[in-house]
From TrEMBL:
Location of the Flagellar hook-associated protein 2 N-terminal domain: 10-105
Residue span, Flagellar hook-associated protein 2 C-terminal domain: 591-854
Coiled coil: 249-303
UniProt source species: Agathobacter rectalis
Protein name, UniProt field: Flagellar hook-associated protein 2
Subunit structure: Homopentamer.
Length: 864
């Protein structure tokens, strides 16, 4: 950069002069800066609009399915006994409910002790032992606590809480109050001493519970009985008892797990059986319309999400599947691969004819050649001469290094490690010399769409549900059962498929129902196995104390250690059982499971909440043998609100689009430069820029295209039961250009909508239709939503100019923005260079004038 002297000698305003001289360059740069700023604002406007359109697209996705409209409402005859909420799957009608038993948490009220405050210690209560070891057991979980003579009541409360209990010491009543945090038998608790000192500490604290004292002086529920029952005449006998209990526990839990797995499979197989039969019937109907459709559809189903980018080709009675690869042939055409039954790969090349917008497919040949690559990774164009371990390229000689296999350039007998040749085998794909355009090649996704569109709406809905159920069952894996075990997924699948092959849907239904013998029905078998598993689980719980030992590998060091630890507990428990250190005043309420009867079927649980067949039931009080009624019906208001919410969101977006499209022109307004902003107030700048921003999408062709697609979808008619319906059939329409507010002529209004001043006085045809024929309304809304979803989806597809789920050319705009940045930098460089040039000239002038002045001064001095 030149030295910039601002008229030190000449007195000229050099900066202003240079600025004026490069102003034409500056104007060009500012032109591009303004264009870039305008583009940036346009991107922001599109991003904001795109977010809203994508939100609508996402929200209407669920509206395409019947589950979105299967809204239910429910009422209970006695709300003091239960509250009930109905999900979409809840059946309509009245059901009977009895609440036989409420779930309760385990609760203990301790005996009165002599602790005046929370700071009283165990020693002050008379405890003289050492480390008092306690065990808090809740269900399968056991936690250890250690107290000492110096432990206070607060310390005891803290330890009990850390162990997972709710605990409190009330110094007014001098008692501990302890309870489970959750209801149910499985969440009940016991607190025992795991050594003599632990039992003594519990006794001093007034929370040593052993059940109610009997007339014989014993306790009805001694907490040490479970361990003590394993005690034998010697340690060897005790160990043998323990290991026998482990064997019994393992057998019971293994059998229970197997029975539960079988029960679950049987229940799932019921749904699978009906779904399988439904699906096969649909296949038959498809073949009746178009022979071979079922085989093609089954193939396409297996492809699943990989249908996109896959091709299928008819091969005799079956189809070959070609999957898209990342490979290309020697001409750059994309390759698709097919693997035959012998696991051999075959390729076809996709040759696009852009002029005709078509693609042809040709068989390719696969060949391997030796490739030579230089140190930069670039393949040599000319094949070098190779003799043994020497390779020659022109006048250069390379020799092979046996360690890494590379050929290094030789300089005076030394290898140049920066210059080397790599030799490798390269696979190439070339369209076969005699290849003809393969006929019958289809896009897998297009073929699938064609078959699906051949179904009517009802069949399509049945197909979707049946296929999902069939695939879920057939793809499920048994983790407990072997494939050959009774009632495994594999065996049940085979049984149901064989039944259908024998005599169709009727045979499947007979198999599921038990062929006339109710006990042989899948549901009854499942219930019987579940009951047997529950019985085994309860038996296993009786020997639950060996659970940890049972989890160890027998004969391992961990097993031996655990066995010895358990032996110590058994011996201690036996001793404590005989000492009977229990507080007779302690009261314990056992944890209790809830029990209800819904339509005569019993259900139990560890809480008072149940989710059964679409109903969420919250039990509040017992009903005894009296029943309360639950009435479920279609939530017509909910369906109405669903339609109204959809239209509201659509209206908000289409109104905004219309406003943007019809915006006033900004005329000659352009983004301001920094110098121009300096001449204006903040309010003036904001007003100026708003004028431009509001007009950015005016008459935009892309916006117009999206609007047209959405409007066309909303105006489309739907055929249901041979009759055509449109939004106007249900009293939903626009107000028209003459009656609508500005830029709201494309918005829809519901006749009779009390929130809409424009149509509130009209007859509410929509609610009437929902009440009279909800199925028709739901089917119409499903198809309308599908049409709109597809219309928006088509506009959001990825292209060379736009990303996926984007309605505008974001890629193109990003490229344009980058190009502007590059151009602006180029013009900044030109301005800088030009300024340097002029400043250099002025500097030279200033230097010359300085010399001239100096000379004149010298001459003048001679005459002075």
């Amino acid at each position: 950069m030149a030295i910039r002297l601002s008229g030190m000698t000449s007195g000229l305003d050099t900066d202003s002069i240079v600025k004026a001289m490069v102003s034409s360059y500056t104007t060009r740069k500012e032109k591009y800066q303004k264009a870039q700023t305008k583009l940036e604002w346009t991107q922001d406007a599109w991003k904001s609009l795109n977010t809203k359109v994508y939100s609508l697209y996402s929200n209407i996705s669920n509206l395409r399915f019947s589950t979105a409209y299967n809204l239910k409402k429910t009422s209970v005859s006695d709300t003091t006994k239960a509250t009930v909420k109905a999900g979409s799957g809840a059946p309509s009608g009245t059901q009977s409910l009895k609440i036989k038993q409420m779930a309760k948490a385990g609760y203990m009220t301790g005996a009165e002790i002599k602790a005046d405050s929370e700071k009283t210690t165990l020693a002050q209560l008379g405890y003289t032992g050492g480390d008092a070891k306690l065990e808090v057991k809740m269900g399968d979980e056991t936690k250890s606590i250690t107290l000492s003579a110096s432990s206070t009541m607060n310390d005891v409360v803290k330890e009990l809480r850390n162990a997972g209990l709710d605990a409190n010491y009330d110094s007014s009543y001098k008692r501990f109050y302890i309870s489970s945090k959750k209801t149910g038998v499985a969440n009940d608790f016991t607190i025992t001493g795991s050594n003599i000192d632990g039992a003594s500490a519990l006794y001093s604290l007034g929370i040593a519970y052993g059940g109610e004292k009997t007339t014989a002086g014993t306790y009805s529920s001694n907490p040490y009985d479970e361990y003590a029952a394993l005690h034998g005449a010697s340690d060897d006998v005790t160990k043998a008892n323990i290991e026998a209990a482990v064997t019994s526990y393992n057998n019971l839990t293994t059998d229970a797990a197997k029975m539960n797995a079988q029960s679950k499979n049987l229940m799932n197989a019921v749904n699978y059986g009906y779904s399988y039969a439904t699906l096969q019937d649909i296949y038959k109907k498809l073949d009746a319309k178009n022979a071979g459709y079922s085989d093609k559809l089954k193939l396409l189903e297996k492809l699943g999400s990989s249908r996109d980018g896959a091709l299928i080709s008819k091969n005799g009675d079956s189809y070959d599947t070609y999957t898209k690869t990342t490979l290309t042939d020697t001409n750059g055409n994309t390759l698709y691969k097919y693997i035959d039954s012998d696991n051999n790969s075959h390729y076809i090349a996709a040759v696009a004819d852009k002029d005709k917008d078509t693609t042809s497919y040709y068989d390719v040949t696969e060949s391997t050649r030796t490739a030579y690559t230089d140190a930069d990774g670039k393949e040599l164009e000319a094949v070098p001469t190779v003799v043994d371990d020497t390779l020659k390229v022109g006048d250069k000689t390379y020799k092979k290094d046996e360690k890494d296999g590379r050929y290094y350039l030789q300089k005076d007998g030394t290898a140049d490690k920066t210059d080397f040749i790599t030799v490798s085998q390269k696979t190439e794909y070339t369209i076969a010399a005699d290849a003809e355009n393969k006929t019958g090649i289809e896009s897998a996704s297009a073929a699938y769409d064609t078959i699906i569109k051949s179904m009517d709406e009802k069949t399509k809905s049945s197909y979707d549900e049946a296929l999902a159920s069939v695939q879920a069952f057939e793809n499920s894996k048994d983790e407990v059962l072997g494939s050959d075990d009774k009632y495994s997924v594999a065996s049940l699948t085979k049984a149901i498929q064989n039944a259908y092959a024998g005599n169709g849907k009727e045979a499947v239904e007979q198999l599921l129902a038990g062929n006339g013998n109710e006990a042989d029905g899948f549901v009854n078998k499942a219930n019987a196995l579940e009951e047997a598993a529950e019985a085994n689980t309860k038996k296993a719980a009786d020997s639950n104390i060996v659970k940890e030992l049972a989890s160890k590998q027998k004969d391992s060091a961990e097993y031996t250690q655990a066995l010895n630890d358990l032996l110590g507990r058994v011996n201690t428990a036996y001793t404590l059982q005989n000492k009977a250190l229990f507080n007779s005043q302690v009261k314990k309420v056992a944890g209790q499971d809830s029990e209800i009867e819904l339509n005569g079927v019993k259900y139990t649980g560890d809480s008072n909440s149940y989710s059964i067949n679409g109903l969420t039931i919250e039990a509040l009080a017992e009903t005894g043998d009296s029943a309360i009624s639950i009435t479920t019906s279609t939530d017509t208001q909910g369906v109405y609100d669903k339609v109204k919410d959809f239209l509201t969101e659509y209206n908000n977006i289409i109104n905004e689009m219309t406003k943007l499209y019809n915006a006033d022109s900004a005329g000659s307004y352009e983004p301001l430069t920094d110098d121009e902003k300096d001449q204006m107030s903040d309010k003036e700048i904001e007003k100026w820029e708003t004028k431009i921003k509001d007009s950015l999408l005016r008459r935009d062709s892309t916006l117009g295209s999206v609007m047209t697609a959405m409007q066309t979808a909303m105006m489309s008619s739907v055929e249901i039961g041979g009759k055509k319906y449109s939004l106007s059939s249900f009293g939903i329409s626009t107000l028209g250009f003459l009656n609508a507010a500005e830029n709201e002529q494309n918005a829809y209004h519901i006749d009779g909508d009390e929130d809409d001043a424009n149509t509130s006085g009209k007859t509410d045809k929509l609610m009437a239709a929902i009440n009279d024929d909800p199925d028709t309304v739901m089917q119409f809304m499903q198809q309308l939503s599908t049409n709109l979803y597809s219309a928006i989806g088509d506009k959001m597809k990825s292209t060379d100019l736009s990303s996926a789920f984007t309605i505008y050319n974001d890629k193109q705009m990003k490229t344009e923005y980058t190009n502007y940045t590059k151009t602006i930098k180029e013009w900044e460089k030109k301005i800088s260079d030009r300024e340097d040039y002029y400043y250099n000239k002025f500097t030279q002038m200033e230097s010359a004038m300085t010399k001239l002045n100096s000379t004149q001064s010298s001459i003048s001095s001679y005459f002075s």
